[in-house]
Amino acid sequence: MSKKVTFVGSRSPNAVEALAMLSEKYDAVDLDDAEIIVALGGDGYMLEAIHRNMKRDLPIYGMNRGTVGFLLNSFETDDLMERLEKAQQVTITPLHMKVTTDSGIEQEAYAFNEVSLLRQTRQAANLRVTIDGKTRIETLMCDGCLVATPAGSTAYNLSAHGPILPIGSDVLALTPISAFRPRRWQGAVLPKDAKIHLTVLDEHKRPVSAVADAHEVRNVAEVEISIAPKRAVTLLFDPDHNLEERILNEQFTP
Q1: 137 with 210, same domain?
Q2: Distance from CA of residue 128 to its chain's centroid?
Q3: Which of 5, 55, 63, 148 could bond 157 through an S-S bridge, CB–CB 3.0 to 4.6 Å?
Q4: How far is CA 109 from CA 37, 99, 115, in A?
Q5: Any bridge partners for residue 237, and if so which?
Q6: Is 43 a catalytic residue?
């Protein structure tokens, strides 16, 4: 039996055109009445759609109307309902970021790809790295540092030479960005339930921002990062092009 589907899309011309075509062809319902969300756009918009609908607990099927489309299925106007019936489910769990700024203000956000700390000025950041209450690196001098989920391990994390993590693995990647000291430290793979605490040393002289997907907080003093299982989201993928296969392919792409 066909599910009730709603369509959402980015503002790009390709996505706007696709949204109009599919909404008319498949009798789209309002978001409040939907059983499946079909998101049209690129990877950036897919992340936006995931964040916007995180509390609705509805599966999301993305169709690529952007560029890379790593989190998306191919765009076709025909046989959509059959594709949705055959789609495989993948559950992705976000990170919870709790930030305290240098003025004592606290903010929270979620990240399905990564939480990253980045230097704000020409000077390198100095970070203390603490895992589960134990300090592992007293001073990490770097351009930044990030914590990536398996789903996000092929994004910024991979560009920073971090490890690719299988989608079903119970681990996180802790990856430095241009580490200067310790010079040879290349990061760590941590259990998914690890409590990660990053403290900014010299926060006034060497200011640092923290970013959870697209949410940025500037002038941070410390950041706590942990998994947030209650915020997990279900994504739908065509069987011949599922997320696990894409992540595996990334490890064999020249």
Answers
A1: yes
A2: 24
A3: 148
A4: 23, 9, 9
A5: 88
A6: yes
| Domain shared by 66 and 143, yes or no | no
Structural domain boundaries, residue 193? 95-228
Q: What is the pTM of this model?
A: 0.90
Please write the tens of the pLDDT for every residue from 79-137. Answer: 999 999 999 999 999 999 999 999 999 999 999 999 999 999 999 999 999 999 999 99
Q: Are residues 100 and 118 in the same domain?
A: yes
Q: Is 61 helix (H, G, I), strand (E, B) or coil?
A: strand
Structural domain total, the chain: 2
Residue 148 is part of a domain; what is its CATH number?
A: 2.60.200.30
Distance, in Å, from the CA atom of 180 to the CA atom of 143, rounded to the nearest integer, reads 8
Site of tokens 């009730």: 4
Q: Are 170 and 151 in contact (CB under 8 A)?
A: no
Single out the catalytic residue among 43, 57, 213, 240: 43
